[in-house]
Specification:
homodimer, 337 residues, alpha+beta, five-stranded antiparallel β-sheet, 17% strand, DNA-binding
DNA sequence: GTCTAGCACTCTGTGTTCCCGAGTGCCAAG
DNA sequence: CTTGGCACTCGGGAACACAGAGTGCTAGAC
């Protein structure tokens, strides 16, 4: 049904429409891409493509525009990811290498991705549940309060103030710290709950009330942060683009952690390191937008996801190239630290 | 030159224009606000106000619109801050009280302020330089690396990985930690640099190389973070409003920490707890916007600033009320923790 | 059978004109 | 000083025409 020339026509339509933002007609197509056929032939092919639902015309006497289905075919079969230039790769490397801590890595990554793609970039913080405990620290604040600081192997730090049920002195705190660390050090965070359950038995009776309080806070921290933090950048890039769904909705979704989470999460597949693309209506929440995302993290240890969000009419090959490259570099940086 | 009635006319123009977003004419004015004079009289007053530069007309045959100077007079002399309703105050209180740590306080505050004012809210993180060291923690990562964690009395945590010039064992680290803490505990962060300068003398010679590295990182952390982090929320509220300067510029400024910093910082006066308002062109960076800001923090210990940014045409009394109230509550919360 | 050229048709977007109405400034009278 | 009256201005919307791009269809060429 769709011979090679028809596919070439579809590809040409997508490319032209992406670059000009105007419905593309048969004449311009036949000229600009050397298809070696006349506009009339192109028109016949276009009619066929429209019949199949790959393109559509906004008005009777206008050119054609790709549909979501058309973009899908383009992404799947007609395009290949465009690698970044050497200069761009070097810029990424040096920019990310300058990061001083995890927050900074995430911040730089999201800014970088936004600038590179000229879209809105979204980065999820590395998942706690897949990381392991590197250290638990208890800092006495006064005689009934300690600050609990949890440090993970990804360099992440979580902190909570814990109100103790009884007065504890410095030595008791030091003792608790030692016990906690010996039990938890190196554990995956997901296995902490079980450990916590039988931890009290190993403690001296007088330690138990304080320990129980601390452990419950620790658990709470883990559970609560399970739905991970997510950041975005590049909202200014939305200013030019026009969304069918309205700019306001997009901005609202960006600030709503939960929605953003879903948008990024839904793209997750069984091979998390693969690039996933959701186009327009394929997207459950924000219909008018497309999302290009991928997991990051070294090898089999996938930490979280990152990607960009933009109008359906975006340059997929370039965007995919940038997302993939940034994911690789940030994985590398995180593995090294 | 400006008698009471002219001021009343100006106030009426501002109020009407803010609520309708349309140039307001003499007839409508005379009717809606019971000025007890005829439209013709109002016209004379308007002519005088325009002569003085308080109002202007977009086109020859249109109504009047306040100028920046007009808004300024309105804010300074014609309006009074509108307090929040009891329900709103309760909502603020319960929402902020639920925060679990400093990040959460800031995050909730900025979201709250955005929702309350239907503008873009901006909150600066509490300033490090005004807080004091509560604890310095060194966590061994491997034999040449430690994580430096700095905890302040405001509950803020800063972290850095430090690469040491030599191999250090656990006991050495513990020793360094003890020394650092005894020196720095309770110090204002601004006085740290001097302390750091003569600290090496108090150390055993074998500690000096490692200590020097750690201290330099500590200093770096303080200096670098001196220009503070700043967050915003409510960008979706910009979608409706129209800015003379273009939506894109505003979004860009919001993501540019430095610019945002300046915008908020420039509003700072000798009495930081006072509400400051910068209207349109008074604002050095983003001309088309107004900023309502205030300091927060308990009493004389001002921690940082927060505020909202919106179109010049905003409801100043309501916005000012919201900013003031939120600043008070967040100060309260921070003082308690 | 597939491609091409020609032709009539259908739109949208743009430029023009026209007119209404809101709003103003000014003047003379109360 | 205030007010009613009046002529004037100008923006914005409606009606209209028109050019141009693009299409679908059909008949002929390879």
């Amino acid at each position: 049904m769709l011979d090679d020339r028809k596919l070439a026509v579809l590809r040409a339509i997508v490319e032209d429409y992406v670059s000009t933002n105007e419905p593309v007609g048969s004449k311009a197509l036949a000229e600009r891409h050397n298809l070696k056929v006349s506009p009339a032939t192109v028109r016949n092919d276009m009619a066929a493509l429209e019949e199949e639902g790959y393109i559509t015309q906004p008005h009777t006497s206008a050119g054609r525009v790709p549909t979501d289905k058309g973009y899908r075919l383009f992404v799947d079969r007609l395009s290949q990811v465009k690698p970044l230039s050497a200069a761009e790769r070097r810029a990424i490397e040096t920019f990310l290498a300058g990061a001083v801590d995890l927050d900074d890595v995430v911040f730089r990554t999201v800014r970088l991705l936004a600038q590179l793609t000229r879209q809105v970039a979204v980065v999820q913080y590395p998942t706690l549940t897949r990381s392991t405990v590197r250290h638990v620290e208890l800092v006495p604040l006064n005689d009934r309060r300690v600050m609990l600081v949890l440090i993970t192997n990804t360099g992440r730090v979580e902190q909570r103030v814990v109100e103790l049920p009884e007065v504890v002195d410095e030595t008791r705190v030091a003792h608790l710290r030692a016990v906690l660390n010996s039990c938890l050090d190196g554990c995956g965070l997901s296995s902490v709950p079980e450990l916590v359950a039988d931890l009290p038995e190993r403690l001296a009776p007088e330690d138990r009330p304080a320990a129980a309080t601390i452990l419950s806070v620790l658990l709470e921290t883990l559970v609560e942060r399970h739905d991970e933090k997510i950041v975005f950048a590049g909202a200014a890039n939305l200013a030019g683009a026009d969304f069918t769904t309205g700019l306001r909705d997009v901005l609202e979704a960006l600030e709503e952690q939960v929605v953003l989470m879903r948008l990024l999460g839904e793209t997750s597949t069984d091979t998390p390191s693969a690039l996933t693309v959701r186009i327009g209506s394929e997207n459950p929440y924000l219909r008018g937008t497309s999302i290009v995302a991928t997991g990051y993290g070294s090898g089999d240890n996938q930490l979280a996801r990152l990607g960009v969000l933009g109008p359906t009419r975006m340059d997929y090959p370039v965007t995919m190239g940038a997302v993939r490259a940034v994911a690789r570099y940030v994985s590398q940086i995180l593995a090294a630290s």
